[in-house]
């Protein structure tokens, strides 16, 4: 009986590499959680791409990214909320089917993410 559980225990307790295909527009910024006191932040960025097709047609749009973060102290916890665009594909649709054998589609796919974060400070006696 003990030997039959061993493979299951090893399978559930070993770390594995997670593989995922995809894209990342912005990363989850947790820096605001380490600021003192209550915090409210807003940021914006724009991406200028120069990816063009052979005929000079622009393939990707130039997206703008905006994110907001707020943090407050609730008892011993720091509680934060942040928004960010975790993924985006914005294709310009610049080429027409008659000009190119591989037309560029006009497509927008945005994945907006709202993340809730908690932070608890351990005692000063805790050392890593």
Present the secondary structure layout:
Layout lengths: L1 H12 L25 E8 L17 E11 L2 E16 L13 E15 L8
Antiparallel strand pairs: 1-2, 2-3, 3-4
Give your account of this protein's structure:
The chain has 128 residues and is mainly beta. It has one domain (23-120). It is 9% helix and 39% strand. The protein has one helix at residues 2-13; strands spanning 39-46, 64-74, 77-92, 106-120. The protein has a four-stranded antiparallel beta sheet, with no helix packed on it. A hairpin with a 2-residue loop joins strand 2 (64-74) and strand 3. The longest helix is centred in the first third of the chain and has 12 residues, at 2-13. The two termini are 39 Å apart. The model has no long low-confidence stretch (mean pLDDT 76).
Task: List key phrases describing it.
9% helix; 128 residues; flat; four-stranded antiparallel β-sheet; mainly beta; 1 helix
Quick summary:
The chain has 128 residues and is mainly beta. The protein is built from 1 helix and 4 strands. A 4-stranded antiparallel sheet has the order 1-2-3-4, with no helix packed on it.
Strand content: 35-45%
Count of distinct strands:
4
Sketch the major β-sheet. 4 strands, antiparallel
Stretches where pLDDT is under 50 for at least 5 consecutive residues are none
**Shape field:** flat
* Rg, Cα atoms, Å: 23 Å
Span from first to last CA? 39 Å
SSE series: HEEEE
User: How much helicity do the residues have?
Assistant: under 10%
* Class by alpha and beta content: mainly beta
- Numbering strands along the chain, what is their spatial order in the largest sheet? 1-2-3-4
Number of helices: 1
Averaging pLDDT over every residue, what do you get?
76
Number of domains: 1
